[in-house]
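Progress against Task 2.4 (sequence-to-structure conversion) is shown through the following example record, which the project officer requested during the mid-term review.
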Amino acid sequence: MTAIAVTAPLSLRSRSLGAVGAISAFAAAVGAPFGKAIGNEFGWRRGIHAFTGMALLGVIVFYVFYKTRPRPVGSPAEPAPEHSLSEKQTAAKKSGSVFRNPVVYAIAVLEGIVGVGYFSSNFFVPPAVAAVFGPKTMSAAYILSTGFILAIFANMFFGYLMDRFNKWNVMALMMLILIPASLCMNSTVLPIFWIATAVVLAVGLSAAQQCFSLAAELVTGREMGNVMGIVSLGPGVFGYLGPQALGWLRDWTGAFSAGWYFLAIVATLALIEVLFLKNYLKRQKAPA
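Structure tokens generated for the chain above:
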């Protein structure tokens, strides 16, 4: 994320992060059957070794292609795009430590709560399908795979919108999609549940990805790594708390409906935070 945020042009940053999210969704769609095939053929230990090999391959690819190319001496500086003028105007605010910037932590919380549905779907969709539609109706893997395939296109689509229009408005649009989709997961009609689950997974993953784009707008240069690290706290914390909350609601109520209502409430809270941060940053940039 840091590498993309630092190197991608401002006009293409959200699309670049969306491309990373699309590739991640594709990897999630093929990674599970890939590991299962190797595990069935060679045993689960060999499957773990295969994932280790993929990680080492990623290191090699990164080392080969991601290199710093210093600007030749005397070459003219690249003109700054128009929308970077606000960065100059707020340079004094950006010069402080990002660890004391409350907006960074607010985006970390936003990153966590917009992804609660995505984090929780992988855990609770399989038992929900078995409980509501019967264990022999269909495999939940097809539903999850549909969500990841949809996430490939959703990441690219919302990344494009984030670059073309106001980022906060696009983020609010994603929350407005997540709220009814989460409620539709209560449906006992399989196609509706299938589509709703795929939308929650795809849009939730896209929204979580684009939170990094929102955070990248706050700083430049060497502080980018610190901001990305802070924002990554969100999925780390809520990736644990979200499934725990849905599990507790399932045990308390004896059904999955409370969990899906919980996802809708969380998306509503995320929408409120998005609108608050949009207005807060607008007031911060307003001339005194």
